[in-house]
Amino acid sequence: MNFYEIACNRQSCRSYDAERPIEQEKLNAILETARLAPSACNGQPYHITVCRGETAKAVAKATQGMGINKFAPDAPVLLVISEMPYVKSAALGAKLKGNDYRSMDIGILAAYITAEATAQGLGSCILGWLDDGKIREVCHLDGAVRLVITLGYAKDDKLRTKKRKAMDELVTEL
Ligand SMILES: Cc1cc2nc3c(=O)[nH]c(=O)nc-3n(C[C@H](O)[C@H](O)[C@H](O)COP(=O)(O)O)c2cc1C
Fold first, then answer.
1. What is the pLDDT of residue 111?
2. Which of 28, 137, 147, 151 suits 114 as a labelling partner, its CA being 20 to 30 A distant?
């Protein structure tokens, strides 16, 4: 798949085959692609915690509430993305320019992870509805948890029609 094909095929998976584990080679490929993601000053101010089994279940529970993310416990693997300190140059840039580079870096990381998951034939969903304190406790993390990404084989991998802004609403050419 070229990148456009990956972008067309990636969609948030909210129904996983709980009985089908992810092959270690596929998970390794996702993590290796994640390692290559760009970041401000190449600082990679984040950490990825791979959760399986009971840990995954506990993290999944901490992404639920008000009927949201009910599907998360069925995903065999959850990746917890937490913050790490900025490198000095990125910290200075963020302060001087008032720009939150770390959140951008984590967003790019998530895009790389979900794109590679798609290339590996896996479903994924980025979760931002989460209980930071609970997940930090479960995963023994100091840094704030910003995202959780569910990974697994989709029960139903039928592609939905993508709803997106029209090009002229999204883009201005001057
Ligand atoms: C930062 C972020 C947080 C998100 N949080 C959740 C979430 O907690 N639960 C969920 O089901 N989807 C979540 N999503 C998925 C979005 O709803 C989804 O990407 C968007 O509706 C577009 O649909 P698609 O991913 O199927 O193309 C999140 C996506 C992003 C980028």
1. 99
2. 137
> Which of 126, 160, 163 to mutate to test ligand 1, by most ligand atoms within 8 A of the CB atom?
126
Rounded to whole angstroms, the Cα distance separating 136 from 130 reads 11
Rounded to whole angstroms, the Cα distance separating 13 from 75 reads 10
Tokens of 44: 């990679």
Q: How far is the CA of 19 from the centre of ligand 1 (A)?
A: 24
Determine contact, residues 153/74, Cβ cutoff 8 Å: no
pLDDT at 103: 98
Mean pLDDT by runs of 10 across the 174 residues of the chain is: 97 98 98 98 98 98 97 98 97 96 98 98 98 98 98 95 98 98
**Residue 11 CA: which ligand 1 atom is closest?**
26
**Ligand 1 atom closest to 68 (CA):** 9
Place of tokens 């993305």: 81
